[in-house]
Design a protein that fits this description.
Blueprint (H helix, E strand, L loop, with lengths): L2 H4 L21 H14 L11 H14 L1 H19 L10 E4 L8 E4 L2 E9 L7 E7 L4 E7 L5 E4 L14 E8 L3 E3 L4 H4 L2 H29 L5 H29 L5 H26 L1 H6 L1 H13 L5 H14 L2
Helix pairs in contact: 2-4, 3-4, 3-6, 4-6, 6-7, 6-8, 6-10, 7-8, 8-10, 8-11
Keywords: FAD, Flavoprotein
Protein name: Acyl-CoA dehydrogenase
Pfam family, one: Acyl-CoA_dh_1
Length: 331
Amino acid sequence: MSAAVRTTTGLGWLDLGHPRRIPAPRSATSVITEVRARLGSGALDLPLAGVDTLERWSSLVDLGRTDLAVARLAEGHVDAVAILAEAGRAPVAGSLYGVWASRSGGVGARVVRGRVQGTMRFCSGATGLDRALVVADDGGGACLVEVDLTHPGVTPDPGTWQAIGMDASDSADVSFDRVEPVAVIGPPGWYTARGGFAVGGGGVAAVWLGGAVGVLDDVAAVLGGREADEHQLAHLGALHAAVAGAGAHLEHVARLVDHGVASAHHLATSRAVVERAAWEVVDRVPRIVGPTPLSRDRQFAQRLADLQVYVRQHHAERDLAALGRTVLDAR
């Protein structure tokens, strides 16, 4: 087990106070540049889930701990590579991929006479990626297509992302106008029915967890420069317990995946556990540090805002209700 894995579980979470940050100023351009540098160095060549899920998720935790915008794009790339592998395909060497699957607001992509049409929301890496795996309705169900984003019919609209959180993730609406896909990846319904779908969601949770730890790194650095009172220490202790528990649970589920015995219930539970820990961080951190770092330290405030936006990829009570249903069905 690598040092990165050892520091993501149990008492290893005590290793706080040494913030790992992408140097400021941060922008969508600098984030894409950082992700491409990691791609070129081989740092995104992660083991597939089921081969060494623990190492894979540990690497994603570490990325999230450094910078959530970088981690968002890196996670999308490694997820796309895993999806292609599951379909028996290989990515184009040197290309940076993403997975665009949102059906938000009643909009989405569709396949009409073999061409991709429509608009998709929340496309991270909208202007900086090379290729994307796009979920599109072909009339018989949702299918997955690979799209070359240099096609003239692909048009990002950067003005559609107005959030401060994850502002450097290059997320935007993307419109498709008669875009011929490079390939169709699997039959309709394959994307969500495949075994790797829920496991991929565990990789997203690993990034959330890293983001939560990154914020706690900053909190520990702030408190280390002054005398913390008992209320601050109590909040910090509560957050340490929440994050350590989430890390231990994620490690447990990673081992289940590697042994081939992880169920969708296990993976949904791990996402819910990590989401709860991340939300505790979002709620308690402002009460620990007060207004000064939130108003005078842009990187501190940015990391907290990034976490708050990114963790909403969990569908809150809808995902929890689905989890609760599986609990009752198992009785």
